[in-house]
Amino acid sequence: MPRVGLDRNKIVEAAIELANNMGIEQVTIAALAKNLDVRPPSLYNHFASLTEIRMQIAKEGMQKLEDTLIRSVAGKSGEEALLTFAKQYLNFANQNPGLYEATIQPMSVPDKMVEETSKNMIDLLIQLLSSFSLEEHEALHLVRGLRSIVHGFSSLQRAGGFQMDFNVEDSLLYTIKLLCNGLKFEK
């Protein structure tokens, strides 16, 4: 019988907090049980496995990232939209490191919600790139490139890889501006 007051949402919230503080790999049944002050078997009344818990963390992260990005670029287009997208993506990754880390892990089993959210984010970026009059394949290459740029900045920043006395966000935005200038020049 499940413990009174313990439910899936509380477990996921605790898992997200643990992931943000310690990293997604530190989210274990034992660590979660300790944080929730329950015995490890109690968690299995709500989730079949640690994989299921981590998958739920990824779903939460993807949904929050998608919501953040959609809200932030509403009403914007072109360079302004891409700069806002990059800035908000970086901020999300840095403010929610474990949650973000979960979103980039490959899913062990296909999930319709994850696939839909991923498609929505790709579609959002393609829409933001539409003002540059790109062919579909060019836009898809750029979606990968933009994600790689922002992920790279976030990963390096969290790992302490930026030691120079320059603001990391300013460097990211400068890089995105150069990309936009190149797109304008090409067309």
Automatic annotation (TrEMBL):
Residues 5-65 form the HTH tetR-type domain. Keywords: DNA-binding, Transcription, Transcription regulation. This is TetR family transcriptional regulator. The keyword DNA-binding applies. InterPro entries: Homeodomain-like_sf, HTH-type_Tx_Regulator, HTH_TetR, MT1864/Rv1816-like_C, Tet_transcr_reg_TetR-rel_C_sf. GO terms for molecular function: DNA binding. SUPFAM superfamilies: Homeodomain-like (SSF46689), Tetracyclin repressor-like, C-terminal domain (SSF48498). It comes from the Bacteria. Residues 28-47 bind DNA.
